[in-house]
Write a structure and sequence with these properties.
CATH class of the largest domain: Alpha Beta
Order of helices and strands: EHEEEHEHEEEHEHEHEHEEHEHHHEEEH
Shape: globular
Radius of gyration: 20 Å
Strand content: 25-35%
Helix content: 25-40%
Largest sheet: 9 strands, mixed
Bound molecules: fe (ii) ion
Distance between the termini: 41 Å
CATH topology of the largest domain: 2,3-Dihydroxybiphenyl 1,2-Dioxygenase, domain 1
Length: 395
């Protein structure tokens, strides 16, 4: 088994492959008020507020806050005027993921290769440099509003340094004092890195985007769940999972499928201006019980799992050959989901939407050998999602 355990990928390996992904450089969210959103993600999910770029650091048209936890870097960006493209996007989609950026050895070469492979440019290479080093980035358009940036770094800006608190980019300043950073040190949530991220696309477009990841970013197909596997009486989706060449990152792509009631994928699209986008980010932890306990204590709003789920879950996992070593009672009390495949089992739990629109949410996942995504939990997940949809009057 070589897959997700390989993340984070070794950073020192030189390769001639321009699309070799060294790491997830950062995930950029466009949000209405980055200053306030930063406090939300710090307080509820335990991210440290590390650096800022805004009016005080010489930026005139936007403000960005870098939040970090483990090897996760979230960049929250708000526009400061109507000319900034984020203004229009936030009006259309609300808060959400704009860019999933990958660190590469040479951003320009990665960008050129992606264009040669058929990508459409989102923005051309830009290099920011000062006496400390340089950051070069360039972006291609993925599904809907999503962009994938390629980022290459030199000097103090190198990824190894960034991981130790080094500068993110020119015009970013460290945040010296922030009460939640101290609190997080004493009460860690244990989120380590981005395990996978899921994109929702329009009905009939899944295969188009599977081909796009295969040909443009040179990903390969990881798993395939068909409609029959994961549909419930009321909801349905189709999903295929794409993985980068080095298995660093996995991207399941969902499209809505026919069901008696409205698919959760369709609900997402309807509240996202019928535009594809990132549905959830899954953060990896080594200790699901600890992470979920701490996140719940901080007030994270997780999906409610029906009680009946725990009547059959242990037997289901056992049938696949695994004993769940975590305390079963605690798993149930915390409302954590369990699933298994032929390689092992996993524990996972999904938050409710992170903003008023039923769009982006987070997943907290712990793998005990399993490399899948919780297929066996789709039914339970859908049933609890449907309760939520019903409450919102969107069924
Ligand atoms: Fe997931």
């Amino acid at each position: 088994m070589t897959t997700a355990s390989a993340n984070p990928a070794p950073t020192g390996t030189k390769t001639t492959d321009p699309l070799h992904l060294i790491d997830v450089d950062h995930v950029r969210l466009y949000v209405g008020n980055a200053k306030q959103a930063a406090v939300f993600y710090a307080a509820t999910f335990g991210f440290d507020l590390q650096q800022v770029a805004d009016l005080t650091t010489g930026i005139r048209d936007h403000a960005s806050y870098l939040l970090t936890q483990g090897n996760i870097r979230l960049l929250l960006t708000s526009p400061l005027n109507t000319d900034h493209p984020a203004t229009d996007e936030i009006a259309k989609y609300g808060d959400g993921v704009k860019d999933v950026a990958f660190t590469v050895f040479d951003a320009e070469k990665a960008y050129e290769r992606a264009l040669k492979n058929g990508a459409e440019s989102a923005y051309e290479p830009i290099t920011s440099s000062d006496s400390r080093g340089s950051v070069t980035r360039a972006g291609v358009k993925a599904s809907g509003r999503v962009v994938h940036s390629f980022v290459s770094r030199t000097g103090d800006y190198e990824l190894t340094n960034l991981k130790k608190g080094g500068p993110f980019n020119t015009k970013f300043q460290p945040i010296e004092h922030f009460a939640w950073n101290d609190y997080n040190k004493q009460h860690p949530c244990g989120l380590k890195y981005l395990d996978h991220l899921v994109c929702n696309v329009e009905e009939g477009k899944m295969n188009h985007w599977v081909d796009w990841y295969e040909h443009v970013l040179e990903f390969t197909m990881f798993k395939h769940f068909d409609d029959h596997d994961i549909s419930t009486e009321y909801s349905a989706l189709m999903s295929k999972v794409m993985a980068s060449g080095n298995q660093l990152i996995k991207i399941p792509i969902n499209e809505p499928a026919a069901g008696k009631k409205k698919s959760q994928i369709l609900e997402y699209l309807e509240w996202h201006n019928m535009t594809p986008g990132v549905q959830h980010l899954a953060f990896r932890t080594d200790d699901e019980l600890h992470s979920v306990t701490e996140l719940r204590r901080r007030g994270v709003d997780f999906l409610t799992i029906p009680d009946e789920y725990y009547n059959s879950v242990w037997e289901r996992v056992k049938k696949q050959g695994w004993d769940v070593k975590e305390d079963h009672e605690k798993v149930r009390d915390l409302g954590i989901l369990v699933d298994a495949d032929d390689e092992g089992y996993l524990l996972q739990l999904f938050t409710k939407p992170l903003q008023d629109r039923p769009t982006l949410f987070f997943e907290i996942i712990c793998r005990r050998g399993s490399q899948s995504f919780g297929k066996g939990n789709f039914k339970a997940l859908f049933e609890s999602l449907e309760l939520e949809q019903e409450r919102r009057g969107n069924l």
